[in-house]
C-alpha cells in the first residue's frame, strides 16, 4: 500500500488557508494523458476530489508557469505520475521542483506514482540529466526528481488498459 509523504508543517495552519484544489496532478501528457492519467483524473473527480490538470484549468493566454505555481500552492496534495519520458520534459521538471519546494515549506503531501517505470530508472534519468546539462536550473530539476523518486509511492507496471 502506498504511503503519503507529509512535509513539515508551515507556521500557519492549513485550516486558515483556502485551497482551490484537493489534488494537483503532474504527468507527461505524451506518455499518459489519454491512458492512465485520464482514468485517474476522472476517478478522482467521481470520488469528490477537485483535481487540477493542466489541459483543463489553464487558459492558453495565461502565463503557464505562474498558473502551475499557483495551482500547486492552492492544492492540498500532488500526485506525480512518473512515466518513461517524464524526466525528458522541461515542464515536468519545473513541476516536480515546484511541488517539492512547496512541500518543504508547507503541509503539502506528495504521492509518487510510477507508471510503467521503476523508481530506480527515474533516479538514473535524473543522474543522466545532470551529466548532460550542469546548469543550475537542470541541477534543481534533477535533484527534485531524485528526491521524489526516493519517496514511498505506487509502482504500476504493465497496465495495458490504462
From TrEMBL:
Alphabetical keyword list: Hydrolase, NAD
GO BP annotation list: signal transduction
Domain TIR intervals: 19-149
Record has Transmembrane as a keyword: no
Top EC class, one word: hydrolase
Domain of life of the organism encoding this protein: Eukaryota
Reactions that this protein is recorded to catalyse: NAD(+) + H2O = ADP-D-ribose + nicotinamide + H(+)
SMART domains: TIR
Gene3D superfamilies for this protein: Toll/interleukin-1 receptor homology (TIR) domain (3.40.50.10140)
GO molecular function: NAD+ nucleosidase activity, cyclic ADP-ribose generating
Xref: PROSITE patterns: TIR
E.C. no: 3.2.2.6
UniProt-listed InterPro entries: TIR_dom (IPR000157), Toll_tir_struct_dom_sf (IPR035897)
Pfam families in UniProt: TIR
Name of this chain's protein: ADP-ribosyl cyclase/cyclic ADP-ribose hydrolase
